[in-house]
């Protein structure tokens, strides 16, 4: 098992299974990734809203990768353990006309700069906001041929903006191409469920990930094994679904959770459904990547017998 270092540049801002890997690793290896902020280094701590309006939006997300995992084949599951997401002391949040959940109410451009302490920020007083850094984008190359912008998430992961993907958590993704071709970026120092104004606390970051491979395992979409952070519920099993219809995405996430409880814990389907009704947390992880909405369905690990799923 080796450790690798992967610099941010050259970044990429599209999903394309034809992109050549910048690094090839073995299952069990650890990679230290340098990640630029979502603007690809165009926004700086002293940037103004006028500067922000001039950035090249084709560079948004500025992902580090792809990373190929040796031996990964279609039909396998890639396990990504998040060991660390370290901020660099600053972040930004913007409002962009025509985007965001309340785009009609907040129609003017705005840029807010955050100064980050070790675990909190006091920049938006009197609030003291706890930091919980994570990568908003983590994904493998889609199975379809073509070049796709990074805004829309999918079965391959991508721009999920699931805030539970912080240090200590694990993301499981289906392998859709040889090598998997994993990339990450769009790091946030903190984010609320929904990411309603269009951004979290966008930041550059040093990210450390460990990769494992599970051969011949079926997985229909992203699955998260989250870490506890002293919040209500603590660590969870989280099924993630994205779609243009939030209701249908929520249904799909619930149905996948039922299937997970049946296949891994031996519940009868009707009992799994009842457990979801009394114990599952159904959340909108992001509502701003229109037309796609991302829904997370989580069940606390503490109410289930401990188990490895793969």
Structure report:
With about 300 residues, the protein is mostly beta strands. About 10% of the residues lie in helices and about 35% in strands. The chain has 3 helices and 20 strands. It has helices at about 50, 245-265, 270-280; strands at about 5, 15, 25, 30-35, 65-70, 75-85, 90-95, 110-115, 120, 130, 135-140, 150, 155-160, 170-175, 180-190, 205-215, 225, 235-245, 280-285, 295-300. A 9-stranded mixed sheet has the order 1-4-16-6-14-17-18-20-19. A hairpin with a 6-residue loop joins strand 19 (about 280-285) and strand 20. The mean pLDDT is about 95.
Main pleated-sheet profile: 9 strands, mixed
Helix content range of the residues, please? 10-25%
- Number of H- or I-type helical stretches: 3
Low-confidence spans: none
Which series of helices and strands comes N to C?
EEEEHEEEEEEEEEEEEEEHHEE
SS elements, strand count: 20
Report the mean per-residue pLDDT as an integer: 96
Report the radius of gyration as a whole number of Å: 19 Å
Structural class based on helices, strands and sheet pairing: mainly beta
Question: How do the strands line up in the largest sheet?
Answer: 1-4-16-6-14-17-18-20-19
The 3D shape can be described as globular
Determine the strand fraction and express it as a percent band.
25-35%
């Amino acid at each position: 098992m080796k450790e690798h270092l992967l610099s941010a540049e050259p970044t990429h801002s599209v999903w394309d299974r034809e992109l050549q890997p910048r690094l090839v690793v073995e299952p069990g290896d650890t990679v230290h990734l340098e990640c630029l902020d979502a603007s690809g280094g165009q926004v700086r701590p002293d940037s103004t809203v006028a500067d922000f309006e001039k950035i090249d939006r084709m560079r948004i997300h500025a992902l580090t990768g792809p990373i190929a995992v040796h031996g990964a084949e279609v039909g396998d599951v890639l396990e990504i353990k998040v060991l660390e997401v370290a901020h660099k002391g600053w972040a930004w949040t913007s409002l962009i006309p025509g985007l965001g959940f309340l785009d009609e109410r907040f129609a003017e451009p705005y840029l807010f700069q955050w100064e980050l302490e070790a675990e909190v920020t006091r920049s938006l007083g009197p609030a003291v906001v706890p930091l919980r850094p994570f990568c908003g984008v983590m994904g493998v190359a889609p199975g379809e041929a073509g070049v796709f912008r990074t805004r829309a998430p999918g079965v391959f992961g991508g721009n999920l903006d699931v805030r539970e993907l912080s240090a200590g958590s694990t993301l499981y993704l289906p392998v859709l191409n040889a090598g998997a071709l994993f990339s990450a970026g769009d790091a946030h120092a903190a984010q609320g469920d929904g990411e309603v104004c269009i951004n979290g606390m966008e930041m550059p970051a040093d990210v450390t990930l460990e990769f494992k491979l599970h051969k011949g395992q079926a997985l229909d979409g992203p699955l998260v094994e989250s870490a506890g952070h002293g919040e209500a519920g603590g660590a969870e099993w989280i099924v993630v679904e994205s779609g243009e219809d939030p209701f249908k995405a929520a249904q799909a996430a619930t149905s996948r959770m039922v299937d997970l409880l049946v296949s891994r814990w031996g519940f009868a389907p009707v009992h799994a459904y009842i457990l979801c009704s009394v114990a599952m947390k159904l959340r909108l992880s992001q509502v701003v990547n229109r037309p796609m909405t991302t829904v997370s369905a989580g069940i606390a690990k503490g109410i289930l017998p401990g188990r490895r799923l793969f």
